[in-house]
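User: Last request for today: this protein with N-hydroxy-L-asparagine, please.
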Amino acid sequence: EQQQARVVSTWDFGVGANQAAWKTLRAGGSALDAVEQGARWAESDLCNATVGRCGNPDRDGHVSLDASIMDGDGRCGSVAALEDILHPISVARRVMEKTPHVMLVGAGAQQFAVEQGFRKKNLLSPTAKEAWQEWKKESKYRPQMNVERLSKAMPGDKTNHDTLGMLAIDSNGRLAGACTTSGMAWKLRGRVGDSPIIGAGLYVDNEVGAATASGVGEEMIRNAASFLVVEMMRQGKSPSEACLAALERIVKKREEASKNLQVCLLAMNKHGEVGAYALHHGFVYAVCDHDKDERLLDSASVYA
Ligand code: SD4
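Assistant: Here's the final one, the structure of the complex with N-hydroxy-L-asparagine:
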């Protein structure tokens, strides 16, 4: 049975990322290839301060990247705290396809990338460097809520926007997802967020659906948030009901903290239906399923 192909992504820059992924889907390509292409677009083409090159660094000035990729058949790969490599998503895919492992970190991930032919490149942009030097004057780490649209969060912005989380279904009904980020700006060196952790920042299962996350990664890790969303869909919830149920779990456990941090969840079920929910207002996500049908939608939120 033919399935209408569709791709969805977190945040405003998801529009551009979806277009890159759509080229693959439109040509009958796989969801897996599509999400890799979409993530690569965000990692390279857009000079945002939160994914790939030009990302804000950790508090010691290192741009350190996290990424994961997962296919609906259960295959997955990821890299964490990877430095000086432009396309962590493609390294993650190589981990999935060329090694018996799921996750490589830090120096070992970089060594593997270089062995696979990826070139080393300094990813710290002058603007991000300036922003970091400015931050160092006070050196206060407060993960800020990303409730403003990305257009305001260009390099140097002190907010902690925005991971690209992308989910796709292809015309054969296969699902895949990708997640890529430079993580929370000014994080401790070595900090790993949710994005490269299968089940936290991304989870995909052809039998049910897929989910991805953006926001303060520690909350998603604590609650295996993306896995939880998929399991909620398995129990019969719609994508947005499943996202809400996962957020309710987070709020129940950490009510005070939840008032001041953002968690954004995006889900797609095996029929291609899409839903999203965030703790706070301001989360937007992009949907693309026809050449001319590109939508940027406001997510519902738990708090106003
Ligand atoms: C992280 N979830 O590293 C990422 C950051 C993010 O919007 O999505 N910010 O915790």
